[in-house]
Amino acid sequence: MPQAARPSPRVVDPLRSGDRVLVIGGGPAGLTAAYLLVQAGARVTVLEGTQMLGGISQTAQYKGYRFDIGGHRFFTKVEPVERLWHEILGDEFISVPRMSRIHYRGKYFDYPLKAWNALSGLGLWQSAMVVASYARAKIWPNPVEENFEQWVSNRFGKRLFNIFFKTYTEKVWGIPCTEIRAEWAAQRIQNLSLAKAILNAASIQRRSTAIKSLINEFQYPRLGPGQMWEMCAERIAKLGGEVLLEHKVSRIETRGSRAVAVRCNTPQGEKRFEAEHVISTMPVRSLVRALEPAPQQSVRDAAEGLKYRDFLVVALILKQENLFPDNWIYIHTPGVKVGRIQNFNNWSKAMVPEAGRTCLGLEYFCFEGDGLWTSSDAELVALATKELGLLGLADPKLVVDGTVVRMPKAYPIYDSVYRQHLDTVRAHIDGISNLHPVGRNGMHKYNNQDHSMLTAMMSVWNMQGASHDVWEVNTDYEYHEEQRLEAKASAAQPVA
Ligand SMILES: Cc1cc2nc3c(=O)[nH]c(=O)nc-3n(C[C@H](O)[C@H](O)[C@H](O)COP(=O)(O)OP(=O)(O)OC[C@H]3O[C@@H](n4cnc5c(N)ncnc54)[C@H](O)[C@@H]3O)c2cc1C
Known about the structure:
Elements: E1 20-24, H1 28-39, E2 43-47, E3 59-62, E4 65-68, H2 79-89, E5 93-97, E6 100-104, E7 107-111, H3 115-122, H4 124-139, H5 148-156, H6 158-173, H7 182-188, H8 194-201, E8 217-221, H9 225-238, E9 242-244, E10 248-255, E11 258-266, E12 269-274, E13 277-280, H10 284-290, E14 291-292, H11 297-304, E15 308-318, E16 328-331, E17 340-343, E18 358-366, H12 371-374, H13 377-390, E19 399-412, H14 418-430, E20 435-437, H15 440-443, H16 449-463, H17 479-491
Parallel strand pairs: 1-2, 1-13, 2-9, 6-16, 10-14, 13-20
Antiparallel strand pairs: 3-4, 5-8, 6-7, 10-11, 11-12, 15-18, 15-19, 16-17, 17-18
The structure holds flavin-adenine dinucleotide.
Residues 24-30, 47-50, 55-57, 70-73, 248-249, 281-282, 286, 311, 410-411, 439-442, 447-450, 452 line the site of flavin-adenine dinucleotide.
């Protein structure tokens, strides 16, 4: 099949000595860009809309307890990202053994799925049906692989899809699996099939690193991911950069093909900042809404067509330790709303200040404004406590306290039209030569921290003379491509 022609990387304004750069958003991508830019001698201001650094990768705090917005593992194959993490955090990085299982109708199954474990847990009859359905998928695969259901069923069989993928995935996205693009599955469950899982379980397949999800240990900041981003902001400030909290960008003024200034809402009223370059990690939809003058109707319509899934975490404090050994448990059991449960004691002991206590994070996927989102904190704490009991994970009487953190736009949605919309918006933004959308929501890409950071790094390198196609970065990014970055990065000269 001939390859479709890729758009050539855009031409961007070069970074000159003393240029002022505005970075919208103090999450991993924004702070990474700001850090590289201050190191290169630019005058940098980070405008963060909330009171917290780290974005989705922040660490929330409640009465001395620290917890993530969903547990954040640090794992990457991108060498410059790995180096930066260690440069910032030094010996505050700890190594955490991974254990995660699926809770399904009172039974536990290893996650990532291991064939023997899954089959033995399901019992003889179910297992026979699973194997038959797998064989059918291999002999007569669905010739069309457009949606999540088709992609997974072709690799695991329809029956296993129904047991282990459908319920949880639909809980996460709030839409049927037939409406989720296959691309998302390909990014998240790359190279994993029942056959590979069997080989892996039998240790026949040596290169288990080829199976992305099977990582037995991960790095983690001692005080949670927020520690990384708090320390990064400190370094930026030491190098002369500014990191301003509660500066929510409402307008990006453009003149011709350039962004010239940014306006934001602050507790002291509206403020205006002029700049030679703007790096944006704000959601693509909000970015287009902020552009002044407004782009043509087709671009605005495309941006409004981009959708998000929101998320909230209920942190519960229990007066007992060692409740279960997992870092987190996926809840596939029907009848409860909770999607995943984190046990922060098993991420880092330093996150839990009192002995004899456990801090759990019960994760709920929702849409801003729906019943879960608008429930009061007290109602959500009560719901989480009840569901913990229903699942048999802990006696509700052990819960002594709880709190809630809501995270809007936690997930950019890959529905059947997002790609088309994104291409339209991208074509418009590419025409603004000093505006760089980077990061997860900044590019509407389901990226982890490392790839969010990589898009920021590449944009800075492009400003310094490199020519990376930032939109090409995703979780499928090939290892050798990542290695090549090193050479390209060192070819790009920092400004004097
Ligand atoms: C449940 C969950 C679990 C995850 N687990 C992992 C994991 O294990 N490992 C991993 O590496 N990644 C994980 N991720 C992904 C990770 O959180 C993101 O990749 C990363 O935080 C993206 O960084 P970012 O800077 O692009 O965006 P964000 O983290 O979204 O940061 C953007 C920042 O911009 C600010 N902002 C937005 N609009 C404005 C505005 N108008 N003005 C000013 N500021 C604005 C926001 O307040 C925010 O601080 C997880 C994500 C979720 C939802």
